[in-house]
Amino acid sequence: MTPAATARSVTIEGVHKRFDIDPVLEDISLHIEPGEALALLGPSGCGKTTLLRIIAGLERPDAGSVTVADRVVAADQTWVPPEQRSIGLVFQDWALFPHLSVAKNVAYGLPRRERSGPRVAEALQLVGLGGLDDRMPDTLSGGQQQRVALARALAPRPGVLLLDEPFSNLDTALRVEVRAEVHRLLLDLGITAIYVTHDQEEAFVLGDRVAVMHDGHIAQAAPPSELYTAPASRWVAGFVGGAAFLPGEVVGSQAESAIGAIPLQRQDLHGPVEVLLRPEQLRLSHGGAGEVVQVEYYGHDSMVFVDVGPAILSVRTGAEPGVVRGDQVAVHYGGNGAVAFALEAETP
Ligand code: ATP
């Protein structure tokens, strides 16, 4: 396998950006270690692509700085053009030239003097497309076109690779397969990778860390398991993973709720709270005040939605849920301490 250039760190400090009068990024700071995979996750319009474009040098920040390894590439008085940043970019639509062959598309990513050298064949080999040099993009499958875009970005051996929604053009089945291949390849290369995605599952699969963006801010940056089990705010809790929020009243180390007492992770809460309940933390038993309002069968397991009065809770069960719509059931909390949010703490 052709080695990538040495993986480089990326440091973003105090970046602001507005378009016209609308602030799009507000005081963004992030450090990405060499070889780390970071997923930038957030809803549409929260500023993910703008941040990626600022790192790449396709957009200038209004304030703040971007540093790649030890080199400041964007700051008040400093501007390094995109092609000198050692950063590769895979666009959402792959941006292949339809009138150029696979090899010429890949060569386009290289400085002119290197286009006829071995780099093109190496890059195509790397992504498993060796021998397809002369094919035109429209004769390739979606997954293959994706790999051409990847080969083009990797050919100059960048120290950092940025990928903007790289799998969103693929249908669901292919997306999972191509995602796993690309993920493995980039892990093998040890390259620093920053993925932009609005898909939580994708962010969790790809990112060593996930930075959750909301309205131009980083709401939380943490490894996926920490985001899931210890979300920093109610907004993050609701955005990552299936979540229901059940009103409760803190009594000692528990919250009294419609499904009984729920042990809490944090012991410093008082008064009314909302308890975060994940589907896998809940169990069902027959008979009770809850009503099954919906059952979804997934094959490997099922999801049962139960109306418990103040909220509809989703409960993950075995493949055979053992209940049907209309059944009366009780919901039990079976997890360790639950996360809860004071009712007034609504800021992301
Ligand atoms: P999506 O997932 O939909 O691509 P995103 O999180 O990547 O969204 P951005 O593309 O960064 O979001 O856009 C953030 C905001 O900035 C949006 O409101 C968008 O309309 C606006 N915006 C982005 N680029 C420009 C531009 N060149 N001129 C004006 N407004 C822009």
The averaged pLDDT comes out at: 91
The number of helical elements comes to 8
Give the proportion of residues in helices: 10-25%
Distance between the termini: 43 Å
The geometry reads as: globular
* Main beta-sheet strand count, sense and barrel state: 6 strands, mixed
List the helices and strands and how they pair.
Blueprint: E1 10-19, E2 22-32, E3 37-41, H1 48-56, E4 63-68, E5 71-75, E6 78-79, E7 87-90, H2 102-107, H3 119-126, H4 142-154, E8 160-164, H5 172-189, E9 192-197, H6 200-206, E10 209-214, E11 217-222, H7 224-229, H8 234-239, E12 244-251, E13 254-257, E14 260-263, E15 272-277, E16 282-297, E17 302-307, E18 312-317, E19 328-333, E20 340-342
Parallel strand pairs: 3-9, 3-10, 7-8, 8-9
Antiparallel strand pairs: 1-2, 1-4, 4-5, 5-6, 10-11, 12-13, 12-15, 13-14, 15-20, 16-17, 16-19, 17-18
Bound molecules: adenosine-5'-triphosphate (ATP).
Give a brief description.
The chain has helices at residues 48-56, 102-107, 119-126, 142-154, 172-189, 200-206, 224-229, 234-239, and strands at 10-19, 22-32, 37-41, 63-68, 71-75, 78-79, 87-90, 160-164, 192-197, 209-214, 217-222, 244-251, 254-257, 260-263, 272-277, 282-297, 302-307, 312-317, 328-333, 340-342. It is of the alpha+beta class and 348 residues long.
What does it look like?
- It is a single chain.
- Helix content is 21%, strand content 36%.
- The protein is of the alpha+beta class.
- The strands form four sheets. The chain has a six-stranded mixed β-sheet, with helices on both faces. Strands 2-1-4-5-6 form a five-stranded antiparallel β-sheet, with helices on one face.
- α3 (119-126) crosses α4 (142-154) and α4 packs parallel to α5.
- The protein starts with 9 loop residues before the first strand and ends in a 6-residue tail after the last strand.
- The mean pLDDT is 91.
- Bound molecules: adenosine-5'-triphosphate (ATP).
- The site of adenosine-5'-triphosphate has 11 residues, from α1.
